[in-house]
Amino acid sequence: MDWIQFVLAPQIVNGLAIGVAVVLMALGLTIIFGLLDVINMAHGEFYAIGAYVAVALLGAGLTFWWALALTPLLMALIGYVTERSLIQRVFHSKDRHTLTLLLTFGIGIVLEDILKLVFGANPLRVEAPISGATEMLGLFFPNYRLFVMGLGALIIIAVWVLVFRTSLGAMVRAAAFDRQMTASLGVPVNRVYAATFAFGVALAGVSGVLLAPIYSVFPTMGRDFVLIAFSVVIIGGMGSIKGAVIAGLLLTQIQSISSLFISPVWGDPLLFGIMVLVLMWRPQGLFGRLGHA
Amino acid sequence: MSASPILQANELTVRFGHLVAVRDVSFNAQQGAITAVIGPNGAGKSTLFNLISGAIRPNAGQVMFQGREVTGLSPHQMLGQGLARSFQITNLFFELPVRENLRLAAQFLEQGRGLFRPVSASQIACKRVDELIEQFQLGPVADEMAGFLSHGEQRRLEIAVALAGRPRLLLLDEPTQGMSHSDTHRTEALIRSLVGPSLSVLLVEHDVDLVMNLSDHVVVMHQGQKLAEGPPQVVRANPAVQAAYFGESPHD
Amino acid sequence: MHEVTSRSLGHPARALHWLAGLFFGLALVFAIVAWTVGDVFFFRLGTEALIFAGLALSVDLLLGRTGLLPLGQALFFGMGAYVSALVLKNWSSSFWIAIAVALVFSAITGLIGGLIAIRSKGVYFALISFGLAQVVSKIIFNTRELGASDGMIGVPVAQIAPGLESGQPAGFFLVVLSILFILYAGLAYLMETPFGRQLGAVRTNEQRLSFLGVDPWRTKLAAFVGAACIAGVSGALYPMLRGFVSPELMFFQVSGNAVINVIVGGTGTLIGPLYGSALLTVLRSVVGSYTAHHQIVIGILFILVVIVLPRGLIGLAAPALQERLGRREGAVRTPILHADHPQ
Predict the structure, then answer these.
(1) CATH dotted code for A14-126+138-281
(2) Which residue spans of chain B are classified as CATH 3.40.50.300?
(3) ipTM of the complex
(4) pTM, whole model, 2 decimals?
(5) How many Å apart are CA C77 and CA C89, to the nearest integer?
(6) Residues of B (141-200) whose Cβ lies below 8 Å from C
(7) Residue A132: burial class (beta carbons within 10 Å; 0-12, 13-18, 19+)
(8) Distance between A191 CA and the closest CA of chain C, angstroms
């Protein structure tokens, strides 16, 4: 009983905080794939940029809350520009899938090195805006992590509402399902695409900001994290929002709890191994695609 | 010419979710003969075709070929059994010349020999290519890329590629799809000329007249089930078949 | 009997062979110039470029010929390097034994990796390849017996033949060049065999190929193992040149650079990746002497190539050259697809 209370429960809660951030990142990735049919190999770098943007804003004297509010907007702008100036150029070619994959891969490489150039290769620390811990059920949980869980959950719900319950979301889903039809209905499909990419990138950025106080901030942080995000998206089903949420929470829990039994170094390999198994047995993941779900 | 069936479908059933696309369909295809599967749109003929050619697995039933079960074999095992198929939507190697399309298909005859020797060393395959080019009158376009051919030429190539591996049963999926009248007649004659003791044909077709002229044996599908089976004249006169076709809005 | 040559396949084969001859010819010229200049640095840089060219060749076999994008090919490269280093340090200083062991090891690990990865296509394959490299490199990073994050240093020189060993800059350069030539020539020959044609067919229309009696899975697996061996052998040469190995040889940077080398050089041309590697290694070195951030330059160049010139340098040069060489039927044309063909 003690073990559950003092060892397992904290792991679960910690895992939830990370899980929520992973879900946000995976949501961005899966939405970009679901609508644009683009595999965003640079998604990890956008996550890192989010963290660095926050660092920069904090360095400019803003509070964490301002950083948290402004970063998504800046990320959305970066995403929008990236999509319109680069990705759309290869969008209509025959080898679209390979080219967009390679293109975003190249963008990721450039972005990572830019971060190294601007901020240096050394890890940076970001202070958690909320300190202290709350007592619940005889245990102390770090307040910041509780905050991350709460805010993350709110954002996830907001995304769900946006996609499934608003006309904007309906438009986006229609464009995912049938581009030409939607275009002929007068919807500015190109702008919808760019905005969707921007939205996905913003989610990655938010994830970066939220996790910055938990992990340190360094230029290759995206590279390590993106494998988890892709694993979640693949296991959940590429293009499925429900899948991203469920798989994201589930997998981070698995990773979190397993770290009690095996060395944390094996955490990523474990997830990767699960992803490979899922790909072998059920390649479409747990759930379907965005437009078709 | 033997009278035993070369292909037997036994109670084939396949479901996609709640939709039963093919239900309990059984029929025989005779050796050395042309068997046609026809039916209105949505009758399940394409699905049935895919079941027989190994593209999908049935939920129930078997496909017996020359007495051996071939149900659920993977596509690449089919040719080894003696079954080859063509595609309704032309499915060639468009970026390769006609010769290479045929050579890739004919390579099967080498049975894995010469895999790592120069292409020209595969004499059997090369000879087969020349044979097919002549048989299918593809001489003028033999060195053209398949994507450049006219529709009719592509459909002929489509059949030639399926035939290259010397199958015992040739499965043709709407071979005259989109063809002009003259091309259709040509193809009809071609298919007729192909059958013999060593080659039987099973085809799925939309063109009822073509089927009635060409086939020795007809299977009529309707809403996933077999409606009738027999020689063309008998099937044509079957009132249920007439109702199925004329009772619905003209689609041909 | 009419032979179907690469010429009629739309590959500008004559031009490619010409360009290949040019490449190896230029390499020899480079060797002579470097010899006269007398600075060891050029030979070392050139040898390193050739070693990474081997890795690029293995990527092109998968990407350009089989249609699989490997984002973790450095895995086999790095493992080949480690195996070679271990053999040279602990067992024998024979060049040949080190290469042979690395080859066998690559074949085995390639088979295992292939069994895991080949079931998937497209981005899934890319991610599995990427993930495998991440996972294994992390494991090695944390393995003290293999030097952990520092890797292993003090790898002795490899004995190639009486009087010839890997410590001799000019001699080793020529040895590596010869190996690269053998690898290239072998692959070029392979493409003219039924197996090689099957590879290309898997890439353009896997489904149809399977109905022609070819098991695409086996074909892809064979290509994967072959590529692993090529990468492993190339990697095995690395510690002979540099005297050390580190986990960084398996990091994404190496895999990524290899893919970039292939795309810039010209996917599917086999000789393009060699040119790409040579050019970009030199570029990285030149830019790298000014700034540590040469990846930005390389990355931007890569992005430009993907957008503007997806067929790469050789992909552009070869058809043009072919036409100049006067053989019209070898010109690459894009077939017009008919309306009923879904694309």
Answers:
(1) 1.10.3470
(2) 1-82+167-252
(3) 0.88
(4) 0.88
(5) 18
(6) 142-143, 145-148, 151, 154, 161-162, 164-165, 177-178
(7) exposed
(8) 20
